[in-house]
Amino acid sequence: FGHCGSALPSYEASVQLMRNGGPLPSHLFISSQVAPHEGPYGRFLELDDQELAVEIELLIHKMGGKALPDIVELNTGIMRSDLEANRSYIQSCPETLPFPITAIGWNRDKEVNPSLLGGWKEYGQASFKVLDGDHHDFLQAPMELLSTIAEAMRRYI
């Protein structure tokens, strides 16, 4: 499972395992991320550190926490590194995976509209699911997300 920027390393790790004969995942779950050949994508890529800090503070407050300056600063640095990795990950030609992909969108996602996930069909057997929520609702592990993953994984039990 990879959400937003972490979907790219999830995909790339799958590719590297496939290329090197490693154990393959049974299924790849992608959430709120355009296909690699359609990126990099997203407004966060254009934000400076101060703007990123504001976004982090908003998320911390949304989740019921208190935005302590040291935590905001630490997470701004982490987010900046993630964004630079996202920006530099260029995939010109999709590499097909030999296992299913489920691309998950969120109906109130203002960062990555679910309609932008269609490019994942070029990476193998892809299915698409739109769940109720916004860009960060995956953090609360809503039952609809857990059910989507559990339902797809039942065939491997």
What keyword list fits this structure?
about 160 residues; alpha/beta; Rossmann fold
| Rg | 16 Å
Number of folding domains? Answer: 2
The CATH superfamily label of the largest domain reads Alpha/Beta hydrolase fold, catalytic domain
Order of helices and strands: EHEHHEEH
**CATH topology assignment of the largest domain:** Rossmann fold
* Name of the level-1 CATH class of the largest domain: Alpha Beta
Fraction of residues in β-strands: 5-15%
Low-confidence stretches: none
Can you name the CATH architecture of the largest domain?
A: 3-Layer(aba) Sandwich
Shape: globular
Tell me, rounded to a whole number, the average pLDDT: 95
| Number of β-strand runs | 4
From the structure provided, what is the oligomeric state, counting identical versus distinct chains?
A: single chain
Largest sheet: 4 strands, parallel
Helicity level: 25-40%
- Numbering strands along the chain, what is their spatial order in the largest sheet? 1-2-3-4
Structural class by helix and strand composition: alpha/beta
Our count of helices gives 4
Gap between N and C termini, in Å? 18 Å
Set down the secondary structure blueprint.
Blueprint: E1 2-3, H1 7-19, E2 28-31, H2 49-62, H3 69-88, E3 101-106, E4 126-131, H4 143-153
Parallel strand pairs: 1-2, 2-3, 3-4
Your description of this structure?
- The protein has a 4-stranded parallel beta sheet with strand order 1-2-3-4, with helices on both faces.
- Helix 2 (49-62) packs across helix 3 (69-88).
- It has 4 helices and 4 strands.
- The chain is 37% helix and 11% strand.
- It is of the alpha/beta class and 157 residues long.
- The protein is globular, with a radius of gyration of 16 Å.
- Helix 1 links the parallel strand 1 and strand 2.
- The mean pLDDT is 95.
- The protein folds into 2 domains: 1-39 and 92-157, Alpha/Beta hydrolase fold, catalytic domain (Rossmann fold, 3-Layer(aba) Sandwich); 41-88, no CATH class.
- The protein has helices at residues 7-19, 49-62, 69-88, 143-153; strands spanning 2-3, 28-31, 101-106, 126-131.
